[in-house]
Write a structure and sequence with these properties.
Blueprint lengths: L1 H20 L16 E2 L5 E2 L1 H17 L4 E4 L3 E3 L5 E9 L1 H6 L5 E8 L2 E9 L4 E6 L5 E2 L2 E2 L12 E4 L10 H8 L4 E4 L4 H7 L5 E4 L4 H4 L2 H7 L3 E4 L14 E4 L2 H11 L5
Parallel strand pairs: 3-5, 11-12, 11-13
Antiparallel strand pairs: 1-2, 3-4, 5-6, 6-7, 7-8, 8-9, 9-10, 13-15, 14-15
C-alpha cells in the first residue's frame, strides 16, 4: 500500500499548493479583503472562494483520475463506490477566514475502499502543512512529527472548535472531558488536529461535523502516533461518517476519554 500511495501523495500535495495559491489575493500584506459570504441551509457560511477552490480541485481530479470518486463539501458526491474516493473541504473554517483568524485550511483526503489512507491539511495563512499516509510517519512542513505522551487526563490540554456546535444532549459528553482536563483551547478549528499531531495538545473533541471536516485527520493523527475515532471508539470511514469525533495523542488518554464519554452519551 505504501508504494501504491506514493503518486497519490504527490498529487494531493499539488492540489493543496494550488488551493493555497488561490487564497493569495485575500491574504496580501496589510489587508484582509474577503469575498461576500452566503448562508447555506444548515446556517454555515460559504463564499465564492470555497466554490472556486473546490471546482478547481474537482476538475484536476477528474482529469488525472477519472475513475476515482469525489466527496466534496460544496460540489457533492460522485462515484462514492469507487475503489478510491477523494474527500475535499476547500475552506474548513470559513467563519474564521472571514474574521481573519488564521486557523482555517484546505482539507484533502483519499479513501481506499472507504478508509482514509492519505490526509493533507494545508493552512495558507501560516504556511503549515501536515501530510499523513497509511504506513508512513506524518510530516509537518516536510519533517516527521509525533504526538506527545500524557500521563494523566488531569495534565491534558483539551481542544474543541466551538462549544456552540454541541446539541443539548451532546454537551454532557464535552463537559465530562472539560471537567477532567487541566486546560481547554477553543476555536482552533482544523488547526487543532494538526497541533495535536505535533504534540502541542493532548485531546480533541468535536461534534456536528461531516466526513469532509475530518477525513484527513485520520492518517495525520495515526501516522503521528495518536488515535482518532467517533465517540463510541469506532473507526471513521465512508461507512461510518460520524458527526462526533474524539482524538488523543496518547492512546491511553484516548481509552480514558472514551470511558469518560460513555456514561454521558444519550
Amino acid at each position: 500500500m505504501t508504494d501504491r500511495l506514493a503518486p497519490f501523495i504527490v498529487f494531493a500535495e499539488c492540489l493543496a499548493q494550488e488551493a493555497r495559491e488561490r487564497f493569495a489575493p485575500y491574504l496580501a500584506t496589510g489587508q484582509h479583503s474577503v469575498p461576500r459570504p452566503d448562508i447555506k441551509p444548515d446556517r454555515s457560511l460559504v463564499t465564492a472562494l470555497d466554490h472556486a477552490i473546490e471546482a478547481h480541485l474537482r476538475a484536476r481530479i477528474e482529469h488525472a483520475y477519472p475513475d476515482h470518486g469525489i466527496y466534496g463539501e460544496e460540489g457533492g458526491v460522485v462515484r462514492s463506490d469507487a475503489e478510491y474516493v477523494w474527500v475535499l473541504d476547500p475552506i474548513d473554517g470559513t467563519a474564521p477566514f472571514l474574521a481573519g483568524v488564521p486557523v482555517f485550511g484546505t482539507l484533502i483526503a483519499l479513501l481506499h475502499r472507504g478508509e482514509p489512507v492519505i490526509g493533507v491539511m494545508d493552512f495558507p495563512s501560516t504556511a503549515d502543512r501536515w501530510v499523513g499516509a497509511a504506513g508512513q510517519p506524518t510530516r509537518h512542513r516536510g519533517q516527521p512529527c509525533h504526538t506527545r505522551p500524557c500521563d494523566a487526563m488531569g495534565d491534558a490540554m483539551l481542544s474543541t472548535s466551538n462549544p456552540d456546535f454541541y446539541a443539548a444532549d451532546e454537551l454532557p459528553a464535552f463537559q465530562a472531558l472539560r471537567e477532567r482536563t487541566r486546560w481547554r483551547i477553543y476555536g482552533g478549528c482544523c488547526l487543532a488536529y494538526g497541533l495535536l499531531a505535533c504534540g502541542r495538545t493532548d485531546v480533541a473533541i468535536d461534534a456536528k461535523l461531516a466526513l469532509y471536516d475530518y477525513a484527513p485527520f485520520v492518517p495525520v493523527i495515526q501516522g503521528a502516533g495518536g488515535v482518532i475515532t467517533d465517540w463510541h471508539g469506532r473507526a471513521l470511514s465512508l461507512d461510518n461518517p460520524a458527526t462526533q469525533i474524539l482524538a488523543a495523542g496518547d492512546p491511553a488518554r484516548h481509552r480514558e476519554a472514551l470511558g469518560l464519554l460513555r456514561p454521558a452519551l444519550p
